[in-house]
Amino acid sequence: MAHISVIGLIDSCMSVFLSTVKQIFQLRVHMYQARSLFAADSTGLSDPFARVFYSTQSQVTEILAETLCPTWDQLLVFENVELFGEATELRDDPPIIVIEIYDQDTVMADEHYGPPRFPPQLEYYQIYRGNCSAGEMLAAFELLQVSVILFISSKMYVMNKRKKTTKYPNPSILQVLFWGLRDLKRVNLAQVDRPRVDIECAGKGIQSALIPNYKKNPNFSTLVKWFEVDLPENELLHPPLNIRVVDCRAFGRYTLVGSNAVTSLRKFIYRATDNATLLEKEINASIIFVFSNKVYPKELESEFDNFEDWLHSFNLFRGKGGDDDDQNVTDEDRIVGKFKVRTECLSYSFLSYIDCILFNIPHNDPINVLVRIYVIRATDLHPADINGKADPYIAIRLGKTEIKDKENYISKQLNPLFGKSFDVEATFPMDSTLTVSIYDWDLVGTDDLIGETKIDLENRFYSKHRATCGITSNYAIHGYNVWRDPMKPTQILAKLCKDGKLDGPHYGPEGRVKVENRVFMAPTEIEDENGLKKKTDEHLALTVLKHWEEIPRVGCKLVPEHVETRPLLHPDKPGIEQGRIEMWVDLFPKDMTAPGPALDIAPRKPKKFELRVIVWNTDEVVLEDDDIFTGEKSSDIFVRGWLKGQQEDKQDTDVHYHSITGEGNFNWRFVYPFDYLMAEEKIVISKKESMFAWDETEYKIPARLNLQVWDADHFSADDFLGAIELDLNRFPRGAKTAKQCTIEMVTNEGEMPMVSIFKQKRIKGWWPFVARNEEDEFELTGKVEAELHLLTGEEAERSPVGEGRNEPDRPDIALLWFLIPFKAAKHLVCDQYRWLTIKILSVLMLLAILGLFLYNMPGYMVKKMLGA
């Protein structure tokens, strides 16, 4: 038997009347009700009663059978309670009240639930069973100190007082629209065949019509019923709404299928809308919107109140809740089905709205629907293989239809891009729950479930938010953003106005439309496939639909064109996300115009390109080697290049031997074919992770060209001198000359003019080679003159070239071989022996001047003496 304890402290807020005659008290315990109690019986219900302990006395409430929300509505009076101590001390620190709630069991001992604490105000307080919540209880307490003289009159007062603690001054009518039952599980291995729903509130209730064949049609034939109920004005004191589903069997027997207790009636209470006069308002929507899908970071239901504006879905529970011996039992394990219902609670002051629930009720006969599921991608999937990856694919289940896209699994990906659409025909209400699963493909053995998400399509179909097909941001009759709903905006608007009994729509001149007291403005022209413009009201109607929540009385937000992000859960790991899936669902009734073809959301295919890199020259390359004979610095230069992610396709130029100036001449071509996604600006590479891999894995890598300069060595490893990495989408424009090429082109990229090879197609210039020094700072280690030429795959096939020193020809300067000795002499004279050469030339000039002076001086003196 379940036992729940309530321990309460009577604090100074309690009503305490002090007397100096004798310390005798009277305790009044107002036991009103409890709700959401722990399910202690196998039926999922309990037979609760409460036992109150105070000082040396105890009392019990009455036992209420088979309920989780008992309403005792009793006053328990503890007479002649003797307390010791000063009255002020008892007022400041009153004794503890202990309340234990039990489940009555006729065979075993009563089962204990758990204890809460609460102050003396009449309100709900938590009940605990150990450390777990076991429900709530509404109660209040009064501790009165009375004198011996007043005790008798006080006792008579209590005896004459009503036993009930509350009155019901607010008679109301509870209207119930019985819609249907879903996903009922077996009871004692027998299928549920003829279910019925019993609803009770405040001691009164109704029964639904019997479903004659649950398997054939789980909806009720008689929809609306109502009954009178007396409710307190204070909503806090409202009794719970108890739901019980039974299966009616032969010979008048019935078996409990499941139950639920709705603890609050607040969301069912009818409240009249504000009928104040609303001023006419103009909304200008003359801007043509661009195509954009609303991406919700969570389920669509969380954005639109679970689509319960028309129907509420209540889970049905059966079985005992988890206790200390079975901590693994959760509420999810106890769910045995769903009950779909709509409820309105009307006070007698709103009797004129008695037919509010009958307004615009759709028929609940079986209806055929085309369900179109778009699955874009999954993210952060839980690894399913020992290599920390997964091979995911999509599985769809709706009713008896099951689709497994096993052939199109994506190898070794935790963030797969699917881009798939599936069309499934369903019949509501039998096929109302859509399950989208992600499985891990295995070569041997069964495939493993990674996670799944479930969607209630029926609630979406009947919701006033119109979740059947999202409202696009603009109306188009051709192109990639063509209108895909079978109904045009004008037809949708006309239907909404008719269903809501609204005045409109009235289309006027100058691009105006009026609905009720709202005026909207939008363009009235549309362009067809031939570029011709014609008049249309579709833009006007679409503008109203996008502002439908502003329409008085019946307005609500309509579901826009969207992508929802849903968590993937595993049944064996409840509450733990196994990843997320981005998708959306369209619903098209089969009795309406057939929709167009599904949108093509397949992943973009990479486009083939070929990058041709011609390395012409290098300059100012650092010199690493020392000449054995002369001691001169030199380097044997060559350039290496590759595209990022394709290191195995490295290509090297030939070696320019014994460069003593850092200059090198190559005229060498690198050729890099690659696949490229323009939208993502990524290179796509498919390769096997290892020689034992079954298939290739796809990688997406930024498009970057790496160029390095090396010093070739014969007997040791080549020496790395410097490098530069060029992002092909954004890299500094090459300098025109080697002198203009500086290290700032790397260190201050933000201030340099940037180019993209995918836009420029061909570019030539000088770029610096850099390396980090001992201080971890960049230093210039050389310069390279290169030419980048990008061609598409088709262009490359039409104009093939070879690698290395094939076409084009070497530059003209390279053919002047006879200039090479002079260049060597220039290096010796101008670089290494510059000052020595200047000194020698200066001395020679002085000697020549002195020789000329000595040679000409005698003749000049003779002429001077002879006077010639």
TrEMBL record:
InterPro entries: C2_dom (IPR000008), C2_domain_sf (IPR035892), C2D_Ferlin (IPR037723), C2E_Ferlin (IPR037724), C2F_Ferlin (IPR037725), Ferlin (IPR037721), Ferlin_C (IPR032362), Ferlin_DSRM (IPR055072)
Keywords associated with the record: Calcium, Membrane, Metal-binding, Repeat, Transmembrane, Transmembrane helix
Membrane topology designation: Single-pass membrane protein
Membrane-spanning ranges: 833-855
Residue span(s) of domain C2: 8-133, 158-278, 353-470, 591-742
GO cellular component, one term: synaptic vesicle membrane
Any one of the GO BP annotations: synaptic vesicle priming
Keyword Repeat annotated: yes
SUPFAM superfamilies named in the record: C2 domain (Calcium/lipid-binding domain, CaLB) (SSF49562)
Localisation per UniProt entry: Membrane
Molecular function in Gene Ontology: AP-2 adaptor complex binding; calcium ion binding
Pfam families reported in the protein's UniProt record: C2, dsrm_Ferlin, Ferlin_C
Family: Belongs to the ferlin family.
Protein name as it appears in the record: C2 domain-containing protein
Source organism: Dicentrarchus labrax (European seabass)
